[in-house]
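PROTEIN DATA CARD
Card holder: Crossover junction endodeoxyribonuclease RuvC
Chain length: 194
Origin: Amycolatopsis coloradensis
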Amino acid sequence: MRVLGVDPGLTRCGLGVVDGGTGRTVRAVAVEVVRTPPDADLSVRLLGISDAAERWMDRYKPEAVAVERVFAQHNVRTAMGTAQAGGVVALAAAKRGLPVVFHTPSEVKAAVTGSGRADKAQVTSMVMRLLGLEVKPHPADAADALALAICHLWREPMRVRLAEAEARAAEIAKNHKARLAAASKQAKTQGAAR
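Structure generated from the sequence above:
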């Protein structure tokens, strides 16, 4: 499976494509950081991010897109810009019929390093080891984009299996409830006939 990982941001937006093989093997395909000028209008900056994401999707043909979920930041303005950047990427993916999954930073850190509290240096180091990179992806947004793709490759199969199991359990419970209701109705009917 090929995944486009996106570390969204208005000033720097990391894009990384990773192929997943059998087991937990992963291979880096491409990585880049898209930059937009801080003095440009918001709409122009979002368009630049959207255009870059669309070019990447058309060029690398990912089967899924993994975007970092904004969950809390001290600076509301930064959080809004990050969320907006992630939104335009999700929209570009949706236009192509690609599934989009949002992963929290702690999910990504835990998937890649084994600890949800790992720092950026630890994430970068593990991304280099996992992908066999000799040169550190720079800036950190590039390594984060690759980490998002790796996280998705490793977590998504389990999430899908869990969702399928939950759906099966819900169906079994629904059928059981229907059988109980039918048995109760039948018992009442038989009791009234006596």
